[in-house]
Design a protein that fits this description.
With 265 residues, the protein is of the alpha/beta class. The chain is 42% helix and 12% strand.
Length: 265
């Protein structure tokens, strides 16, 4: 099964605001429609069989309503795995508890947009929940406006992994451009993963040798609809590595499915 583990199918008003944000800053042409139904159709046309839809909160007070919308909109949809989010300015424990009650098993935090580090102590209830329930958490680290990560940002994720070694952390965009630091962290940790989601129009393509020993902790992602490269080109990029068949299948969906299965136990 081809699983896209980094997609943003969001309420249309919010999706339109995000699109305006990128366009007003001169982003390259974004290839996919932002309306959730149209973006979902584009994923299916590209061959995706399941996707994780990841919301994110830019400030406190918005996560709970967004999480409820995700559960109500996509809970019955076998194609979409609805995600949840939280911001450290929220009552984190209450928001995370509510998300669990809604059946949301994947979380996303966006440190750049929300202006907080991954190891903000106020997020501890999220990491405890992730550890206890095996809920994957996609972490977009970084504090630069364009969302790129530095070694310092990766170390913030590393501190979380050290304190909560059972938490399934997925470093968004493979921590680009700090990909070597992320690969090193993955090798020395128990549960850190990374995804291959492009940075708008810049593919995230770690060299094949960087994946040595860790390909089954790597997930495919497209960032649809905020993508300036095609879903198909991302899939082809994985295939050009000519990995062992089981490793390639893991990247293109097997690992995402395993993480979801673990969170359902």
């Amino acid at each position: 099964m081809l699983v896209d583990a980094h997609v943003h199918l969001l309420p249309e008003r919010l999706a339109a605001a995000i699109r305006r944000f990128f366009e007003s800053r001169g982003a390259p042409r974004l290839l996919y429609p932002y309306e959730p139904a149209a973006a979902r159709a584009a994923l299916a046309t590209a061959g995706v069989e399941k996707c994780w839809s990841l919301p994110y909160a830019h400030r406190g007070g918005v996560a709970s309503g967004l999480n409820r919308w995700m559960a109500e909109t996509f809970g019955p949809d076998p194609f979409v795995v609805p995600g949840a989010t939280v911001h450290p300015e929220d009552d984190v424990e209450a928001v995370v508890r509510e998300a669990g009650a809604l059946g949301l098993r994947v979380f996303k935090i966006h440190c750049s947009v929300g202006a907080f580090p991954a190891d903000d102590a106020r997020l501890d209830p999220l990491w405890r929940h992730a550890s206890d329930r095996a809920s994957p958490v996609v972490v977009h680290g970084g504090h630069a406006p364009e969302g790129s990560a530095t070694g310092e940002d990766v170390e913030a994720v590393a501190r979380v992994a050290a304190r909560f070694p059972e938490a399934r952390l997925i470093v968004a965009h493979f921590g680009a451009p700090a990909m070597e630091r992320v690969a090193e962290l993955m090798r020395r940790s128990r549960s850190v993963h990374a995804d291959l989601t492009p940075m708008v129009a810049t593919p995230v393509a770690p060299p094949r040798e960087l994946l040595e020993g860790i390909p089954r902790r790597v997930l495919f992602g497209s960032d649809t609809p905020t993508a300036g490269v095609t879903i198909e080109s991302g899939i082809e990029r994985v295939k050009t590595w000519r990995l062992a068949a089981d490793d390639e299948r893991a990247i293109l969906g097997g690992t995402a499915e395993r993480l979801l299965a673990d969170s359902a136990r």
